[in-house]
């Protein structure tokens, strides 16, 4: 990611000088697309460990690029491109035309990000969506590197990376003008650096894991509770025993992280918790947890009015958040398509993960995988409380999909190894 950030910074500086030289904005945009596509291909070639992995990266990029052009030139990609994307674009343009409105936009961090992007590169929506395409492909690269760090065989890496690269929601969210791809990338980086810190106990990896999560939280405050999960893992994991060690000597490490992370959270609370700044009273907060607007709303009669309701109803709301639309909710072809292209993956992966969870303790990276699963469940509970319709659910749960995919793939591999070894022992005994 570092080379990409450097290129973006250089291009942002040069665009102020070069953009006026172009006769049309189309020529300026086309030139940047061509240059950056060539650079991205070179980046993907350098990052791929095998030819099949490179082909997955390139194909994922070309499909996303094509869908971006479809969204911009032909029709808005269903089901996400529409009112929200247009609102973000308009607020970004507002900041571009009048930077003094930066703190007045109502849609939060992504509108401000777009405003800054337009100020740097010009009010070119295609470039903003192209950036999302690049970030989507980078997230695929980082997920593959995470799987390799977990010592998975290459065919497991290829299958899991292929699922993530061509997962329907990834293909539909990456090319459009929404914040979700930035959030997903931050989450993937967090998982990568959690594993890397587990391997090498590096302060840099620890810092970058938190940084990735903070970036995701900036663009969606609902993830904030996951910071507690990271605090526990990074404080109590023992690199010598390769397992969690809840002893008194680790409390000092916890206190240091609580102070540092607490200072960051306190200093940037308006950014990290922007979504909740207007819900200072409990009534307003819990009314947000009963949100059921939209044609695909679910659990309409289930209203959260206080802390007790939140505890009682959170499991059922999490189930609907992760797995809807269930067959009894099918009211259109779109609902059926979403179930088979999206929900069924969560049902199978989560169900098999829980069914074979006992094998996790035999995995050399069992602790970090367990905390990835805990991070998945905690965030699913929070998102479940705040989500009340299928359209919003499939967007938000995509942010959590990498955690589930990595954990399931690792459990599937270690289970196969354990069972295969048991069969070999039986054969030798005979």
UniProtKB/TrEMBL annotation:
The chain crosses the membrane at residues 27-45, 52-70, 127-144, 156-176, 182-199, 211-234, 254-276, 297-316, 336-357, 369-388, 400-418. Keywords: Membrane, Transmembrane, Transmembrane helix. It comes from the Bacteria. This is Glycosyltransferase RgtA/B/C/D-like domain-containing protein.
